[in-house]
Amino acid sequence: xxxxxxxxxxxxxxxxxxxxxxSFCLKMTRWRGSRAxxxxxxxxxxxxxxxxxxxxxxxxxxLGQIRRLIRREVGTIEDxxxxxxxxxxxxxxxxxxxxxxxxxxxxxxxxxxxxxxVAAVLARACGHMGSCAEYxxxxxxxxxxxxxxxRNLWRLQELxxxxxxxxxxxxxxxxxx
Length: 177
Prior knowledge:
Layout: E1 9-28, E2 39-57, H1 62-73, E3 83-90, E4 93-100, H2 115-124, E5 126-127, E6 130-131, H3 132-145, H4 151-168
Antiparallel strand pairs: 1-2, 3-4, 5-6
């Protein structure tokens, strides 16, 4: 949602969710994966600290936009448990934020995967909405544009680039002279 929120925000601010971290921990066979090559989607998982972006919705449109967002992100009854309100610290104090987290269990949840395993999946998975490698890149790019550097995502990008190099003989990145 950082770079493709699909709702109309009236403002944004940075915030920190304590006790949570970003994780590629949800298996997916649609969008950026397939049944033949499942991908991984990010969600919040317990532990650590997640610096991110909070969006404020217009008062009059809030409920409709939240409904649309949940329809987009929640595909099954099992997925409904992934929607949660959590406290997030901002420069102006704490606010409640709606987040999607990797619920306590479920057939799609893959917790604590080594970064090398995640990188191998992200480098190979692709669906009708693009590749998982692109999903990672766009997330990092848009976080950085907002002044947030996630060292784990940067490390993961390095590992995905190495995977792409081993698969295709190039990383997709060119250098100018």
